[in-house]
Design a protein that fits this description.
heterodimer; A: alpha/beta; FAD/NAD(P)-binding domain; Guanine Nucleotide Dissociation Inhibitor, domain 2; seven-stranded mixed β-sheet; 20 strands; B: alpha+beta; Gyrase A, domain 2; Elongation Factor Tu (Ef-tu), domain 3; six-stranded antiparallel barrel; 33% strand
């Protein structure tokens, strides 16, 4: 007899697990099916080289919703977030820009370049605080569709309108600019120092196939600033044990609530009868029955791969085909025999516990994008570096380190050759670039893992290796994520839902899509009240 | 001019923040870095190294040493074998707390007592007619607390002549760090796996250097009193003159606390025939409990957030631990007061130590915590919970 569940969740990434945990807590019989031998999706820690633990894909935490951490009691399940407080931008001439939690020191550092900028820095921080506060509201609601006349949509739009009308006029104007401008232009309104603008604008290009001068990137910048830790906006942190520890904590909470989690259980397709789902078929041929199936995979897989042709209306298929992934980034994870020694900031200082950004100028970043536009990986890439072992001693043997390097741009579609052919050259380019700033690097590398967009796709299933399950540009946000008409977590197939980063409010280790979708599922099943998430 | 501890040559250059507090007349770092977050997380994720030299230390020797300690403290000193340590309060005749600290049993007839404030006269007066010499060794012993999950691994690599790995919770051993003889106790004020290292002042710097050198690979950071304050509240540990007032400084009766009222009833150990200072009063109190009790509180964070959000602010309570007394209400009446509170970064909860009317001290009770937001007083719900709030398995294992 086939086992029958209330809900089957496809994909054991952080959103699938959050989704499962909330539904299991509501008393539903939930099963999570994960293709890989370990849960986490792109939120995994793996010991690829003995003794060294890599956060293979995602590497820092900020966006994880505090209500989820609290409601699932994740600290009790082992979640601890360590502070990430500084950013070092080394410059090719040996100079640097260093910012940390010491307000006055940061002021002095920026003022070496421009006293005006040092003063504008506080103003900029305040402005983004207002923006994050305004947008935070959106993170906790199911997006209403402005084109719909359904009562839920209309009342949602009214609440939304009221929320934004409460903003001061200059804040509303700034928000409109954020949604439309490029990050370079947006930052131009405050700053004149190139390296400062470049480093700040880098947050606007992460995970996106756009350059700092492309319109729309200012929003991505905000997306990276609206995270909060312990009530502080813009705070970033390391999950103790790597980002995989986040997934492990959520999985533990889900299991405690009664959810079953099966690994090595890839799903081949979603079973549909008369427009309603009846369960899933696994790759090994087994079939599992369920009233509800929720997919945390990206929209392409959710709509086009898992559901048979003919079950979806044409406009959905068309809409999905136009949905943009365009993976633009890769990673290089390094095992190091000693601490990296930066020529711009030698020695063992607190800067090793922060981020290091290879983003010396806006032109540098834009040129890196130029290469990618025409199908090459950047010859001089933007690199966002963290050294988790500098704050979390469990990540590497004593005295040794792991260094995570997020690299952009690495276009999924190469003009020439394949990623399998170019992987080594890509890794060499990254290491050569780093070595210009870290003179001892070549002598201390024990192991390197090069992760191309193709590797991200192969390992995690993220289409085209896009880390957000689809770009976070204004045309693919809110009631347009993933496509108009299906932003409220439902699909054209009854009983089949979406709960991944391809839905509102998008990617990053946030968990909000999983939780909001769980609210919709519970409402449809008549369990509890249809919570708006607060 | 504040005194310098024997570790000052090392701590002073590390203290980038230049934030020092007067701890018993010594300059003691509040933080080394501009903020205490990293130092706090070192305690919970790697290891924090605290200079605790300003603690008062007394050595008691003589054939009646055990009898003297047993007479002074509320726990039974005879229950403490050689090589073990007791945490205990001690009281006046009325059963009100004077101080609290640790009692190390160095030998059959040798003890070392630590306290927050001077106690020599009290200890000597209690020893009247006994063969027990009490000596103030505060300035003869420097001390470090090495606290956190990697503290054991660090010590194992640094200490010779002792099996640190085998040292039980509240155990004590002699050993060496380099050429320096040390005492290592598995004690601390953070509620985590941790040790305290007792060393002669002339060897202090060498011990610091050895720990810092090896500790580098284990996430060791020098940590100050701000980080310690958050950690000790999470551990539910009391601070004298904050969570209770010594009977010697209270001035008025209502400020005094008995161990029962301070949540230390478990440390009152009457034995048949045992006569310790305050035992009669405490026996009376055990039979007819005081109207006051101790409570750990978890304040409902979403309500705090909501109160701040209503005026457009993020919750401004996160950050340092607070020693502000805050009223606690139930049914519209004040039923107690919070003495210490903090946002717990590891638990993601706002927690507090409180003195409340006994009927509200039981876990599960719901009370209201006064919260001032933008100069306006509100109350937010809180729940009485068991302490320690944070109690990792590694602490005892």
């Amino acid at each position: 007899m086939t086992r029958r569940y209330d809900v089957i969740v496809i994909g054991g990434g952080h959103n699938g697990l959050v989704h499962a945990a909330y539904l299991a807590r509501a008393g539903l019989d939930v099963c999570v099916l994960e293709a890989r031998p370990l849960v986490g999706g792109a939120t995994v820690t793996e010991e690829i080289f003995p003794g060294f633990r890599y956060s293979v894909f995602s590497y820092v935490v900020s966006l994880m919703r505090p209500d989820i951490i609290r409601e699932l009691d994740l600290p009790r399940h082992g979640l601890a977030i360590l502070p990430l407080e500084s950013t070092l931008t080394p410059l090719p001439d040996g100079d640097r820009l260093y910012r940390d939690a010491d307000h006055h020191r940061t002021w002095r550092e920026i003022s070496r370049f421009s006293i005006r900028d040092a003063e504008a820095y506080d103003d900029y921080g305040r402005s983004l605080f207002y923006m994050a506060r305004a947008v935070k509201y959106l993170l906790d609601i199911v997006p209403p569709d402005p084109a719909s006349l359904a009562p839920g949509d209309i009342s949602g739009m009214l609440r939304l309108g009221r929320h934004f009308l409460d903003l001061e006029p200059d804040q509303l104007h700034l928000l409109a600019k954020l949604m439309t401008m490029s990050s370079a232009d947006f930052l131009e309104e405050w700053f004149e120092t190139d390296v400062l603008k470049a480093t700040l604008s880098a947050s606007g290009i992460i995970g996106t196939f756009l350059g700092p001068r492309s319109p729309g990137t200012a929003y991505v910048l905000l997306h990276h600033y609206m995270g909060e830790i312990d009530g502080h906006f813009r705070a970033w942190g390391f999950a103790k044990g790597g980002t995989g520890a986040v997934a492990q904590a959520i999985a533990s909470a889900a299991r405690e609530a009664g959810a079953e989690i099966r690994t090595d259980a890839p799903v081949a397709r979603v079973l549909v009868q008369n427009g309603r789902t009846t369960g899933v078929a696994l790759a090994n041929g087994d079939e599992l029955r369920a009233k509800v199936v929720s997919s945390s995979l990206d929209p392409h897989r959710t709509f086009l791969d898992l559901v048979a042709d003919g079950e979806l209306p044409d406009e959905v298929v068309q809409g999905m085909r136009g949905y943009r992934f365009r993976g633009s980034s890769g990673k290089v994870n390094l095992a190091l025999d000693a601490a990296p020694d930066f020529s711009s900031m030698p020695g063992h200082g607190p800067h090793l516990r922060g981020a290091v950004s290879i983003s010396p100028s806006i032109d540098y970043l834009e040129r890196a994008y130029d290469d990618a536009k025409y199908g090459d990986f950047s010859r001089e890439p933007y690199i966002d570096i963290v050294i988790p072992s500098a704050i979390d001693p469990g990540m590497a043997p004593p005295g040794k380190h792991v260094m995570s390097c997020f690299v952009q741009y690495a276009p999924y579609e190469l003009r020439e050759g394949t990623w399998d052919e170019k992987r080594e050259a890509f890794g060499d380019t990254v290491i050569d670039t780093l070595a210009r700033y870290i003179p001892n690097l070549m002598d201390i590398i024990l192991h390197s893992q090069v992760v191309t967009p193709l590797d991200i796709e192969r390992t995690t299933g993220l289409s085209q290796g896009n880390i957000f399950q689809g770009e976070l540009t204004p045309s693919q946000l809110f009631f347009l994520r993933p496509i108009a008409g299906y932003a409220r977590y439902r699909t054209p197939v009854r009983g089949y839902y979406q709960c991944g980063s391809g839905t509102h409010p998008g990617g990053g280790i946030m968990g909000a899509p999983g939780k909001l979708a769980a609210g919709v599922v519970m409402k449809d099943l008549g369990r509890g009240k249809g919570r708006r998430g607060r | 001019m504040l005194l310098e501890t024997p570790f000052h040559p090392r701590t002073a250059p590390l203290c980038r923040s230049r934030r020092w507090r007067n701890w018993s007349g010594y300059a003691s770092a509040l933080t080394y870095e501009p903020g205490h977050e990293y130092e706090y997380y070192a305690v919970r994720s790697g290891a924090g190294l605290f200079d605790i030299s300003p603690l008062r230390k007394y050595e008691i020797a003589g054939t009646d040493a055990a009898a003297l300690v047993d007479r002074v403290v509320t726990r039974s000193a005879f229950d403490c074998p050689v090589g073990m340590v007791l945490y205990t309060p001690w009281c006046d005749e009325a059963g009100k707390m004077i101080d609290d600290g640790t009692v190390q049993r160095l030998g059959a007839d040798t003890f070392r007592v630590t306290s927050a404030d001077p106690c020599l006269r009290w200890l000597q007066d209690c020893a009247l007619g006994m063969d027990a010499a009490v000596r103030d060794v505060t300035r003869e012993l420097a001390a470090l607390a090495l606290q956190g999950p990697t503290s054991r691994e660090i010590l194992e690599r640094v200490v010779t002549g002792a099996d640190v790995a085998a040292l039980p919770f509240f155990g004590l051993t002699g050993g060496s760090i380099g050429v320096a003889p040390v005492t290592v106790t598995r004690t601390g004020y953070t509620g985590d796996l941790g040790y305290e290292i007792w060393v002669r002042p002339e060897n202090a710097v060498g011990v610091w250097d050895a720990l810092a050198e090896v500790g580098r690979g284990y996430g060791l950071a020098p940590a100050g009193l701000d980080a310690l304050d958050v950690a000790r509240i999470e551990a539910g540990l009391l601070l004298k003159d904050v969570d209770y007032v010594s009977t010697w400084t209270a001035l008025i009766e209502s400020r005094k606390s008995s161990p029962y009222e301070a949540g230390l009833g478990w440390a009152v150990q009457p034995r048949p025939g045992r006569d310790f200072v305050g035992s009669r009063a405490l026996a009376r109190e055990a039979a007819a409990p005081s109207e006051w009790g101790f409570a750990g509180l978890e304040v409902e964070w979403p309500h705090i957030e909501k109160r701040f959000a209503a005026v457009g602010l993020p919750p401004l309570v996160a950050g340092r631990a607070s020693r502000e007394a805050v009223p606690i209400y139930a049914g519209g009446k004040q039923v107690g007061y919070v003495t210490s509170s903090t946002f717990s970064p590891i638990l993601k909860k706002y927690i507090a130590l409180a003195t409340v009317r006994r009927e509200f001290a039981r876990p599960g009770h719901r009370v209201k915590f006064e919260l001032t937001v933008e100069f306006v007083r509100h109350t937010v719900p809180a729940r009485v919970v068991r302490t320690p709030f944070f109690d990792p398995v590694r602490k005892r294992r």
